[in-house]
Amino acid sequence: MEYGVVIVSHVAEIAAGVKRLIEQVAKDVSVTTAGGLEDGGVGTDMARIMTAFEENKADKILAFYDLGSAKMNLEMAIEMSDKEVHLYDTALVESAYTAAALLQVNTKLEDVEKQLKELKVK
């Protein structure tokens, strides 16, 4: 498996829900999540993101997040990861779903990214 998806959200249930939605259309794409804080609180944690990277079966990751501080933690985790991680400033649910569905049918990354441009958060 070449590409996988990582979902980072401030709320564990949001990350889990997006993963559940994606699994309906992309059963062969590895999807891992880093949602909320270890104590169940709202927030993101770089260590949890690193774990999501490590647990993902793919060598290359497409990462999606919900809010700005999640991006900051993602950027720090990317610097520490051995995997190739592509980070997208796009609408979380729509872009993660779109990317996974396209990856499921072996769409090239450049073509996935063309679709994601339409979902950019401004």
UniProtKB/TrEMBL annotation:
One of its GO terms (molecular function) is phosphoenolpyruvate-glycerone phosphotransferase activity. The keyword Cell cycle does not apply. Keywords: Transferase. It catalyses: dihydroxyacetone + phosphoenolpyruvate = dihydroxyacetone phosphate + pyruvate. It is an enzyme of class 2 (transferase). InterPro entries: DhaM, DhaM_N, PTS_EIIA_man-typ, PTS_EIIA_man-typ_sf. Pfam families: EIIA-man (PF03610). One of its GO terms (cellular component) is membrane. One of its GO terms (biological process) is glycerol catabolic process. The keyword Translocase does not apply. Its EC number is 2.7.1.121. Residues 2-122 form the PTS EIIA type-4 domain. Component of the dihydroxyacetone kinase complex, which is responsible for the phosphoenolpyruvate (PEP)-dependent phosphorylation of dihydroxyacetone. DhaM serves as the phosphoryl donor. Is phosphorylated by phosphoenolpyruvate in an EI- and HPr-dependent reaction, and a phosphorelay system on histidine residues finally leads to phosphoryl transfer to DhaL and dihydroxyacetone. Homodimer. The dihydroxyacetone kinase complex is composed of a homodimer of DhaM, a homodimer of DhaK and the subunit DhaL. This is phosphoenolpyruvate--glycerone phosphotransferase. It comes from Pediococcus stilesii. The lineage of its organism: Bacteria, Bacillati, Bacillota, Bacilli, Lactobacillales.
